[in-house]
Amino acid sequence: MHSLEALIVELYDKQVIQVGSFKLKSGITSPIYIDLRVTISYPSLLRRVVSCLQDICRSLSYDILCGVPYTALPFATLLSVENGIPMVMRRKEVKDYGTKKAIEGVFQPNQVCLIIEDLITSGSSVLETLGPLVKEGLLVKDVVVLLDREQGGEDNLAKHNIRLHSVLKMTDILETLKHSGRLSAEQVDELYHYFRSTPISSSLPPSAIKSGYKVHQLSFEQRLPLIRNKVGRRLLEIVLKKQSNLIVAADVTTSQELLSIADEVGPQICVLKTHADIIQDWTDSVSEQLVHLAKLHHFLIFEDRKFADIGNTVELQLTGGIFHIAHWADIVNAHIIAGPGTIEALSRSAEHCGVLLLAQMSSKGSLTVPEYTQKALEMAKQYEDAVFGFISLGCIGEPNFLYFTPGVHLQERGDSLGQQYTDPETVIAVQGSDMAIVGRGIIQSSDRRKAASTYRKACWDAYLQRLGDDK
Ligand SMILES: O=c1ccn([C@@H]2O[C@H](COP(=O)(O)O)[C@@H](O)[C@H]2O)c(=O)[nH]1
């Protein structure tokens, strides 16, 4: 038997390759699953795998190796040790203490880095590793994998000018398992049918790699249990049920208009964002009617009060005055400028309220420099029971927080007072934000229902575009 065929049969016999029904990271069910983590339990098999990778690496020129975490790390380590070529490692989670590095190891900008991966489906895991390497100035031209599932990975890497080299292709595996009698011809036909009918084409657009934002490809289902605040979890339940990550900013000045917007766009949105202090005829009855509409159409209410004072004042602003925000708002937000007292006050007095921190702003000349954004992240971590997300221009942190981006418009690029607009696809698929906040793009439309439906679809499609494959 040819050595690659023998390798495939061994992988099958050692249950690295399994046939059945398996859920992939993308949520898609696959009738075949390949778990190359198992190879670390069989040193001779591991050596064989690495020697096959080595045959390809020999033909390439590079200065440094990087294994995609976690499965490919032992492969890259063995290649590094056997060939005396240094290795770097991408952290899956960047720590908020110590050196806070995304890439561990010693390297120089402009060194050529060869990425080693165990298997590739659409290529999203490789692209997640590519981003931080490129950001550090490393050049990536080639990726070597043991197995190409032939589901779009090669084309998606090519869009980033990266060549894919694979030891095995899914076709080799299916043919060998048939010829060796491990699978029947009918089983193999069914598997071919699956691969023909389930193309996985999702990939991060090249701009996502360069945008500098973290673009998480975990689904909202996967992130739901990571969110500590219960309003944040409730929001994700609504998002998933309505397939809507659209928030409408109802910036109007009369209660009648506010309530009619809530009723018109309610079915399309996950959250209605209010500025109670711009409503000229606010009474408790307005909030009661809003809450009624929120229950009817199944959305949350976010009062965009942007608290920014010392804790004691914030407590009074939240609970008192003529607005009694704490009685009806599900979500409020705060600047971090006054320090943690602001958030402490919100977390104490808003038992049923989730908090968002303003980490970045959409307006021209905003003073939210990277250090400021970082401070917002640090503060959120201290108050994770209350804080479940950020107002930001994209994804700026870990998937246990949600990212809400204002300044979203399908046609305009800005207004005369410094607002800057980005389109939903860029905000969600490229910059990795989760929720798009749309004001005038919808409320100034002559048909708000239709506009809300158009934006809902654009935002949800962008979220689906962002979701990748993997294993
Ligand atoms: O950085 C920020 C923070 C908040 N906003 C608010 O979002 C809406 C945007 O309305 P558009 O009509 O879509 O411009 C508005 O309520 C702002 O107060 C923001 O725009 N930027």
Automatic annotation (TrEMBL):
Pathway recorded for this protein: Pyrimidine metabolism; UMP biosynthesis via de novo pathway; UMP from orotate: step 1/2; Pyrimidine metabolism; UMP biosynthesis via de novo pathway; UMP from orotate: step 2/2
Active-site residues annotated for this sequence: 304 (for ompdecase activity), 306 (for ompdecase activity), 309 (for ompdecase activity)
GO biological process: 'de novo' pyrimidine nucleobase biosynthetic process; 'de novo' UMP biosynthetic process
Chain residues that bind substrate: 251, 273, 362, 419, 439-440
SMART domains associated with the record: OMPdecase
One function term, GO molecular function aspect: orotidine-5'-phosphate decarboxylase activity
The protein's Enzyme Commission number: 2.4.2.10, 4.1.1.23
UniProt KW keywords: Decarboxylase, Glycosyltransferase, Lyase, Multifunctional enzyme, Pyrimidine biosynthesis, Transferase
Pfam families: OMPdecase
HAMAP family (alphabetical): PyrE
Entry similarity comment: In the C-terminal section; belongs to the OMP decarboxylase family. In the N-terminal section; belongs to the purine/pyrimidine phosphoribosyltransferase family.
Protein name per its UniProtKB record: Uridine 5'-monophosphate synthase
Record organism: Galdieria partita
